[in-house]
Each structure stands twice: as C-alpha cells, then as structure tokens.
Design brief:
With 195 residues, this protein is mainly β. It has 2 domains: 57 residues, no CATH class; 137 residues, Jelly Rolls. It is built from 1 helix and 13 strands, in the order H-E-E-E-E-E-E-E-E-E-E-E-E-E. It is elongated, with a radius of gyration of 24 Å. 18% of the residues are buried.
C-alpha cells in the first residue's frame, strides 16, 4: 500500500518535469492603434520553441496571421459610374497552410439623398485583375428617400481559399452609381492560416 501511495504522489511530479507544457504564445504587439501581429511560434516550458510549421502543430489548427483592429473609415464617390476604395490590405507570406481565412466587419453609412446609392464589399486575393481569387460580394442598395435622415448598413464578410505563395489580400468597397458617394467604416480585418 505504501509503494502504491508513493507512486501516486511521486510519478506526477516526475511527469511534470518531462512532459512539455505550453507556457505562452509569443505575441508582438505594435502600440498606437496599429495591428497586432503574431509570430505563431509556441514556447514550451523548458524554453524551447516549436514553429507553427512543425509537425507538432496538428491538422486543422488555426494560426492567427493578422488581427488588424485599428478602425479605418473613408468616403467613396463615383463621378463616372464605378469607383472603389481599398479599405484594408495584408501581404500574405509564403506558407504551408491548407487554407487561409479572411474575415472583416464594418458598416456603410451616410445621409439619405434624392438618388439611389448602390455598392458592394469584396475580398480580393492577388495584385492585378484577373485576381487569383475573388469572394462573393456583399451588396447593398439604399433607396432615394430624400434628405434629412442617415442610413447605417452593417456588413460581415468571410472568405477561405488555398494560397501558398506570397500575395496581397485586399478588402475593397465599390460604388457603382454615377454622381453618388457614401461613407465606409472597417472595425476589424482578420487573416488566419489553417494547418
């Protein structure tokens, strides 16, 4: 009985020193409202570091690449019928992820007017048309109800794709009607890699 009790008390303390435990994830934060970026390495209790590309990181693990929560806003006007603003961008590094997921939230707002307002929000992957990937757009239309009130249209967009080489990811808003303008706001722009 004493041997069993000794084993139950002693073995866990031995195992604690042998089994590596995750003590923290190294996060570098850039202050003053700039995005928080992650280096994705996991530091073990013994001080060693496991890379996110290591075989220790299991399939399906989500690695945060960029958490851009710096608010950004602007106005997109259209004099000739089709104009856009690039609300946020991120340069995806070369990687071994099975999927990359991009998410963004924000809203479109402005005063009602005597003309219809129409546009859409999309995620583009690549630097030039034709783009490598283009998400399904989130479209909106504001009726011509006259002046005096404001409209507020929230949006949430998410897009997943496979891309292992370095490229640009862009969150873009389009204004598609002539001689109109409206305001836009982005509250976050998140990029994640899925092993």
């Amino acid at each position: 009985m004493k041997k069993l009790l000794f084993a139950l008390l002693f073995i866990p303390s031995i195992c604690y020193g042998i089994i590596p435990k995750v003590s923290k994830i190294n996060i570098s934060e850039i202050s003053n409202g700039n995005p928080i970026t992650f280096n994705n390495d996991i530091q073990l209790k013994d001080g060693s570091v496991v890379s996110s590309t290591s075989s220790f990181v299991s399939s399906g693990t989500i690695m945060s690449l960029s958490q851009d929560v710096a608010p950004q806003s602007g106005t997109v006007g259209s004099i000739y019928g089709l104009d856009y603003d690039e609300m946020k961008t991120y340069t995806l590094p070369a990687n071994t992820y099975s999927k990359v997921r991009v998410r963004a939230n924000g809203f479109v707002f402005g005063p009602f007017s005597n003309i219809v307002l129409e546009g859409y929000v999309e995620i583009l992957v690549g630097t030039n048309s034709p783009y490598i990937y283009t998400s399904y757009p989130i479209s909106f239309r504001v009726p011509a109800t006259g002046t005096g009130d404001y409209f507020y249209l929230p949006y949430s967009i998410e897009y997943s794709f496979t891309q292992t080489s370095s490229t640009l990811i862009t969150l873009r808003i389009w204004n598609i009607l002539t001689n109109t303008q409206f305001n836009w706001y982005v509250s976050n722009f998140v990029v994640e890699g899925i092993k």
